[in-house]
Amino acid sequence: MTAYTVVVPTTGRDSLRALLSALGHGIGPGPAEVIVVDDRPEPGDLPLPDTNLKVRVLRSGGRGPAAARNVGWRAADTEWIAFLDDDVRPTADWPSRLVTDLESLAADVAASQGRIVVPGPTSGRRPTDLERDTAGLATAEWITADMAYRRAVLAASGGFDERFPRAFREDADLALRVRQAGWRLEHGTRRTLHPARHGGFFASVRAQRGNADNALMRRKFGPQWRELSAAGPGRLGRHALTTLSGGAALAFAAARRDTPAAVAGIAWLGLTAEFALRRILPGPKTADELAKMAVTSVLIPPVALGHRLAGEVRVRRPRPVAKAILFDRDDTLIHDEPYNNDPDKVRPVPGAEDVLRRLRAAGVPVGVVSNQSGVARGLITPDELAAVNARVEELLGPFGTWQVCVHADGDGCCCRKPKPGLVTRAALALGVRPEDCVVIGDIGADIEAARAAGARGVLVPTPRTRAAEIEAARRDAHVAGDLADAVGLAMGDRKW
After folding, report:
1. Among this protein's residues, is 328 annotated catalytic?
2. Among residues 48, 60, 68, 175, which one has the least CA distance to residue 111?
3. Where in the cell (predicted)?
4. How far is residue 311's CA from residue 308's CA, in Å, rounded to a whole number?
5. What is the pLDDT of residue 88?
6. For residue 330, what is the DSSP state?
7. Among this protein's residues, is 411 annotated catalytic?
8. Beta strand pairing call for 184-193 and 89-90
């Protein structure tokens, strides 16, 4: 039987009790344990019911749901981790269907998404703006309201990016990184009920903080991030036009230029009215809802634009110098000898010994991340590989970690570059976060592995580097002329 752990990040909402009660009365194999991660800055009592489930409570210190989920899955020891939000209600047959979903997956499938059901208004009235927003979860892709991941994939990818501080985009980010690493994601048959959201008068305005997270998504995945994550087109362009029109109307009015002020004001009014009507017409049209839509439709465009600009500034701040540098081996540190099993053939590339000596003198940890499929192919024995690597250290000095993938392309491992496993394992061995590492290599797989792990990448092309790989690295990473230039980029343009 497939073993799984349920991880639930919470801020102590009363809905947690109903969730755990539903799990405890579910039909089918229950979880090995439920890990509840209290993400309140000052933890207190949690609404835990009497249940036959094994429930463990951990703390994440108010760092957001991404950090809370990381705390949870890292504490688990089962093959599968099922994430649930603390305000959902799994159906009675959820445990049975989850196990069926997981046992039906192929080896290259990393995760299974449950089907989210959002109940509509019970009175027969039209849904409010916030209720329609919640209803969108029923068709959203890869949301962690109900998402089960292989623990090995979470470990290889580094888990959730904790730079996402809200329950917004952090799940899409993980899914995209996992898919870029070559895994597939599938939908399951289990169902989970998600109640409609309710909030105060300005809830929709506060929700615009997510635009800052959109800036991080664009930074990580490029302008096509919305298409990749099925996020829809968004309204930021219209919000920017609305805000500029309103600002221009005020500026022209202050300068006593009546005609331009009137033109800009009419443009602002038309754009604002269009936005408000799009939100009003599908709704219940009660007095409270009409007032809410009118006021918040005026506020949302400038607030959304402000959060997006703040997010763009934040993600474009210069990143600190690398806390660790990870090198590919062949054609980066030493000249490539295909499937080399002879230590006498190890020849360092020009400059390798010097830059490594300087990095060690500066106290910068260094490691090696290398694909060596010759072992799986029977062309190199493990002892021969160890002898070659020992010769590399004899010539270039010691490395803080060696992370080597000995699998072939079709083995379905989590470590072979461009998957992130080697990078995340090296970062762990060196005691740093993956995002604080720089990976230096000679082919696109090195750069893709860095990106998938959340690290930075620097490409040092050789004659075997494809033109498309160089072009991609120019867009999304860095390209250096030689090893010294690459280390200089990693260390903040210092001269090496």
Report:
1. yes
2. 175
3. Cytoplasm
4. 5
5. 96
6. B
7. no
8. antiparallel
414-473, pLDDT tens digit by residue?
889 998 899 999 999 999 989 899 999 999 999 989 988 889 999 999 999 999 889 888
Q: Which long-range contacts (CB under 8 A, 24 or more apart) does 50-58 make?
A: 51/20, 51/21, 51/23, 51/24, 52/24, 53/20, 53/23, 53/24, 55/20
How far is it, in rounded angstroms, from Cα 223 to Cα 219?
8
For residue 24, the model assigns a pLDDT of 94
Question: How many angstroms separate the CA atoms of 383 and 42, rounded?
Answer: 53
Report whether 154 contacts 7 (CB < 8 A): no
Contact at 8 Å (CB) between 455 and 439?
yes
Domain ranges of the chain: 4-198, 199-317, 324-490
Q: How far is Cα 450 from Cα 422, in angstroms, rounded to an integer?
A: 9
- In whole angstroms, give the CA distance from residue 23 to residue 364: 48
* Residue closest to 420 by CA, chosen among 356, 371, 462: 371
Catalytically annotated residue among 39, 213, 330, 446: 330
Query: Which structure tokens are listed for 333?
Result: 């540190």
Q: Give DSSP secondary structure letters for 95-149.
A: HHHHHHHHHT--TTEEEEEEEEE----TTSPPP-HHHHHHHGGGG-SS-TTEEEE
Provide the token pair at 300.
């949302």
Question: Domain 324-490, what fold?
Answer: Rossmann fold (3.40.50)
Is there a contact between 61 and 39 (Cβ–Cβ < 8 Å)? yes
Tokens of 74: 């890292």
End-to-end CA distance of the chain, in Å? 55
CA–chain centroid gap for 387, Å, is 38
Residues whose CB falls within 8 Å of the CB of residue 3, separated by 6 or more in sequence, listed in order? 32, 78, 79, 80
Set 101, 328, 331, 485: catalytic member:
328
Look up residue 420 and give its two tokens: 């992130």
Sign of CA dihedral 99, 103, 106, 108: positive
| Pairing mode, strands 146-150 and 80-84 | antiparallel
The CATH number of the domain covering residues in 4-198: 3.90.550.10
Return the number of other C-beta atoms located less than 10 Å from residue 397's C-beta: 14
pLDDT tens column, 229-279: 988 889 999 999 999 999 999 999 999 999 999 999 999 999 999 999 999
Q: Half-sphere exposure of 131 toward its Cβ, with a 13 Å CA cutoff? A: 13
Distance in angstroms (rounded) separating the CA atoms of residues 235 and 283: 19
**Does residue 418 have a cis bond before it (omega within 30 degrees)?**
yes
